[in-house]
Amino acid sequence: MITTFALTDNTKQIQNMNNLPTIGKYHFMAEPFHCDFTKHLFIGHLGNNLLNAADFHSNERGYGVNYLNTINKTWVLSRLAIELDEMPAIYEKFTVETWVDNVMRYFTNRNFKIANEDGRIYGYGKSIWAMIDTETRQPVDILKVDNQTILKYIETNYDNPIKKSSRVKLDNNLILQKSIVANYSDVDINGHVNSIKYIEHILDLFPLEWYKQHTIRKFDIAYITEAHNDETLKFYTDKKIEMVSDEVAIQITKSNSEGEIEVCRCKITFV
Amino acid sequence: MITTFALTDNTKQIQNMNNLPTIGKYHFMAEPFHCDFTKHLFIGHLGNNLLNAADFHSNERGYGVNYLNTINKTWVLSRLAIELDEMPAIYEKFTVETWVDNVMRYFTNRNFKIANEDGRIYGYGKSIWAMIDTETRQPVDILKVDNQTILKYIETNYDNPIKKSSRVKLDNNLILQKSIVANYSDVDINGHVNSIKYIEHILDLFPLEWYKQHTIRKFDIAYITEAHNDETLKFYTDKKIEMVSDEVAIQITKSNSEGEIEVCRCKITFV
């Protein structure tokens, strides 16, 4: 069903017609009130900066949500993986480079490289995005939109060491850890629970003491169904919190009149 | 006990010795993932930008937490009032100007003006800060610290229409609305519940539907006691949520082995 689009010489030639490079580079700072008690950036805020970089990069190149909203379409984040050697410390300035290395009919792969001004690399990110119709909420064939603008900015020669991640496997014996009702602060401009808010709620499954001994090496989250205001979100883990050593899988479901549906699944690797 | 410090001609003369103006101006944008479902900046994120501006301004002038931490002292936010005619919309760039107009022995008054690049004013903020010793957690006489650096940057000729706010009065018959346990994401670099997180939790007392009909005109919060990880926060209002028309008072308490202690009190005026 999903066909990988092969870059032709022709698409390579029309790259950079607006003199914008395929790779966008954006500048951020680990703001003091976005840092946790260890004085390092919360991973949720780092995730937010990655999404900002994606948003700026795609809008500048004419295929972002600013354009898509005019034709009743939008980008939806389907998967986000972050692998970190280190997390920016309070007040540290860092850059996020982002580029798209592959466009398929229904998905694009977007990459992130997080480094400081001196080139020291904090880590990388990899994400998958779908384009949907904002009225039907159905997937749209990306290659049929706006003369394939996105293909002008494909970058296949910039390295990202994150391997293509496989689907997170879940046991049958998941443990319910908490249940919350999504409300005002959880909901984004599209009326859905904000992708980053899930990450914050997931990290809050672990006691603060945990983060004195452990840092996050990998964070991989797949967004399956959208959740909305007033829906009950349940957070499950594959092991008891006190039994977690280096790896834990988390499932979030929503419950409404149709029953309980999977919303996200996530795997975290701690060191 | 608290003496207002009168500016002398001498302190005026030593202003700007570092060529930095008394008023600092900082640039922000209403980032897409910091906007609510109405596509306007969440007030919590605006509050965060005000605190950033305060932090940048005081650090640049040598009396910020970067210096204070070296002598085991820090600034603590005691009160924050925000009055808004309008809230920045998604992607709008805005500036926060900040200046200190008065320094007393134990408190300083810091002002904020929020405008766009064309000078259209969104609103103002007013804040009161105390300086404390990070070991004893006791107030410190601001005028005895570092040769009164702060006095070099007093600005008394820039207007802020926010009136000096009076203490929020609370009924005896408060209604308990929710109870949460403060955890990892709530806690800031000092190990205390983040000032902005209280604002987010307060706004979540109102259903999303409420914000379809109402916007925040004034938000005034007094921080009384610090709360910590694992403490239970209780949120009370002076009227039933469904009975709120334009004004509501909120109290937050924390419960620990010493009983229930007031943490914040807040008044919101909606239009």
Automatic annotation (TrEMBL), chains A, B:
<dbReference type="InterPro" id="IPR029069">
    <property type="entry name" value="HotDog_dom_sf"/>
</dbReference>
<feature type="domain" description="Acyl-ACP thioesterase-like C-terminal">
    <location>
        <begin position="178"/>
        <end position="260"/>
    </location>
</feature>
<comment type="similarity">
    <text>Belongs to the acyl-ACP thioesterase family.</text>
</comment>
<keyword id="KW-0276">Fatty acid metabolism</keyword>
<dbReference type="InterPro" id="IPR002864">
    <property type="entry name" value="Acyl-ACP_thioesterase_NHD"/>
</dbReference>
<dbReference type="GO" id="GO:0000036">
    <property type="term" value="F:acyl carrier activity"/>
</dbReference>
<protein>
    <submittedName>
        <fullName>Acyl-[acyl-carrier-protein] thioesterase</fullName>
    </submittedName>
</protein>
<dbReference type="Pfam" id="PF20791">
    <property type="entry name" value="Acyl-ACP_TE_C"/>
</dbReference>
<keyword id="KW-0275">Fatty acid biosynthesis</keyword>
<keyword id="KW-0809">Transit peptide</keyword>
<dbReference type="Pfam" id="PF01643">
    <property type="entry name" value="Acyl-ACP_TE"/>
</dbReference>
<feature type="domain" description="Acyl-ACP thioesterase N-terminal hotdog">
    <location>
        <begin position="34"/>
        <end position="143"/>
    </location>
</feature>
<dbReference type="GO" id="GO:0016297">
    <property type="term" value="F:fatty acyl-[ACP] hydrolase activity"/>
</dbReference>
<keyword id="KW-0444">Lipid biosynthesis</keyword>
<dbReference type="InterPro" id="IPR045023">
    <property type="entry name" value="FATA/B"/>
</dbReference>
<dbReference type="InterPro" id="IPR049427">
    <property type="entry name" value="Acyl-ACP_TE_C"/>
</dbReference>
<keyword id="KW-0443">Lipid metabolism</keyword>
<keyword id="KW-0378">Hydrolase</keyword>
